[in-house]
Design a protein that fits this description.
Strands 1-2 form a two-stranded antiparallel ribbon. The radius of gyration is 24 Å and the shape is globular. The longest helix is centred in the C-terminal third of the chain and has 40 residues, at 191-230. The chain is mostly helical. The protein contains twelve helices and two strands.
């Protein structure tokens, strides 16, 4: 009976989306952390095994002996509201992210965001004078979540989310507000967490810019070489009324993308037709 229950739970987990799987892992480890915290109290142990072995510490020597902590810290949380807000952001912005990217790209942004945030945190506590004497450790998925938010905001900055009592707010403004809030809160406590957020934000922005520039640069180079190869064989046809013009599919596609993004900014993503959503998704992968 117990095996059947575990098997059903495992199969249910496998059937979930990548976002729901990551949320489930975070919740499971959150519960496990508190179980070990209770055991540490009952047996009068001054340390929590989970936090001691899987949180990220700022010294490079600690990372040398526990290299997994550069990633494992991103799945630990201390406090109910800490995990609640992280997972809410991950769920809503993660699902928006998946409308334009795939599961492999999602997990890449998320994990590299955690690593980037951890490296910024460690570098700051080792090289910034105000932080070198601080005793601290880093936990939380915020850097990975921030990478997802900034990543999708960099991809569709004009996309608008509708908030009650506020109205439509573009992703560009949400992203800028998140970064500014982290910067101004660094002196007010939890400097490591805010610096990790900035590391995740940088990763999300750079990743999206790399995807865009890499794709369009390759397409542009290919187009230039094709034109050069075909130039000697080019034949111009003329008519009495109007010279023949080759349609520029790229310009037409870009114009359609601009129209769709303008529609999103005015009315929201949900107002798009299925055809428009598919076109925008395919354009994002090109």
């Amino acid at each position: 009976m117990h095996m059947n229950w575990f098997s059903n739970l495992y199969q249910n987990y496998l059937s979930r989306s990548i976002i729901e799987k990551i949320i489930a892992i975070n919740i499971a480890l959150f519960v496990l952390t508190y179980i070990f915290n209770t055991l540490s109290f009952l047996f009068d142990i001054n340390q929590n095994f989970i936090l001691d072995w899987f949180s990220l510490k700022p010294d490079f020597e600690s990372l040398l002996f526990r290299p997994w902590t550069i990633l494992s810290y991103g799945f630990l949380h201390i406090g109910f509201f800490h995990i609640l807000f992280n997972l809410l952001f991950l769920y809503y912005f993660g699902n928006l992210f998946m409308d334009f990217f795939n599961s492999k790209q999602f997990i890449t942004y998320y994990l590299l965001g955690i690593i980037s945030g951890g490296l910024i945190y460690m570098a700051s506590y080792n090289y910034l004078p105000a932080l070198q004497t601080k005793e601290t450790l880093l936990v939380g998925a915020s850097a990975g979540v921030t990478a997802i938010v900034i990543g999708i905001a960099s991809h569709i900055p004009q996309y608008a989310l509708r908030f009650r009592f506020i109205g439509n707010v573009k992703l560009l403004y949400i992203a800028v507000a998140m970064i500014v809030l982290d910067v101004v809160q660094i002196p007010n406590g939890n400097a490591g967490g805010h610096l990790a957020h900035i590391g995740g934000a940088l990763l999300g922005f750079v990743m999206t810019r790399y995807l865009h520039q890499g794709t369009y640069l390759i397409a542009w180079v290919e187009q230039v070489f094709r034109q050069k190869e075909k130039a000697p064989l080019k034949t111009v046809y003329k008519s009495k009324n109007k010279p023949y013009q080759t349609p520029n599919n790229k310009n037409e596609d870009q114009a359609r993308i601009d129209r769709i993004l303008d529609k999103i900014s005015k009315s929201g993503y949900d107002t798009l037709t299925r055809e428009e959503k598919d076109f925008l998704f395919n354009a994002g992968k090109k």
